[in-house]
Amino acid sequence: MIINDKEFGEVIVRKNSLSRGIKFSVSTSGRLSMSVPSYTSSFLAKRFLNSNRQTIRDSLPIKDPNGQRARDYKKKLLMKKAREYLPYRLEYYAKLYGYTYNKCRLSHANTRWGSCSSNKTISLNIGLMNVPEKLRDYVILHELAHLNHMDHSKAFWQEVSQHDHNYKSHEKRLKLFSPGV
Ligand SMILES: [Zn+2]
């Protein structure tokens, strides 16, 4: 259920049979999200929202409601661009340097550029499409090196440096960008 609120914009209401109280959080799109017990009516949800406005304002980083639709659209375009590029770039480098991974996932987490799980799934953030190619490649090479080293040990960095001699400066420059869309 979606509530259209004049202050917070589209508020996502998720009914959860396990939840006893009402919990507020921020969705990955920056919208306010409410988790409510399954019997909660929209009338009740709105009333609860009204009585908690100040707490929400003070504690949750909700993105400007006027930009919600525009951000959704931007994210969709970015996802499309990423889908047509990142999996192929990953495959290219994996072949070039002899890595085997299980699959490539695209993510839009707000905090990380990429990850590599123990079952050899590599996740790449669609926000990589917004950074210079060298930095994008660095992230890919970094995650590929994790296939052999699941930590940031000396051996790991040695492997990264074999494929990206400038990895230190790339790592530093990447900090100037944010993965959030
Ligand atoms: Zn790492």
CATH architecture of the largest domain: 2-Layer Sandwich
User: H/E element string?
Assistant: EEEEHHHHEEEHHH
Major beta sheet, strand line-up: 1-2-4-3
What CATH calls the topology of the largest domain is Zincin-like
Structural domain count: 2
Rg (C-alpha, Å): 20 Å
Name the shape in a single word.
elongated
By CATH's scheme, which homologous superfamily of the largest domain applies? Metalloproteases ("zincins"), catalytic domain
**CATH class value of the largest domain:** Alpha Beta
Q: Which cofactor or ligand species appear?
A: zinc ion
Number of helices: 7
For this structure, the quaternary state is single chain
Average residue pLDDT: 93
**Kindly, what is the distance between the CA atoms of the first and last residues, rounded to a whole number of angstroms?**
24 Å
Largest sheet: 4 strands, mixed
The class by helix and strand makeup works out as alpha/beta
Low-confidence stretches: none
In total, the number of strands is 7
Describe this structure in words.
It is a single chain. With 181 residues, the protein is α/β, with parallel strands linked by helices. The chain folds into two domains: 2-63, no CATH class; 72-174, Metalloproteases ("zincins"), catalytic domain (Zincin-like), CATH 3.30.2010. It is built from seven helices and seven strands, in the order ββββααααβββααα. The strands form two sheets. Strands 1-2-4-3 form a four-stranded mixed sheet, covered by helices on one side. A hairpin with a 5-residue loop joins strand 3 and strand 4. The two termini are 24 Å apart. The model has no long low-confidence stretch (mean pLDDT 93). The structure holds zinc ion (ZN). Zinc ion binds next to loops.
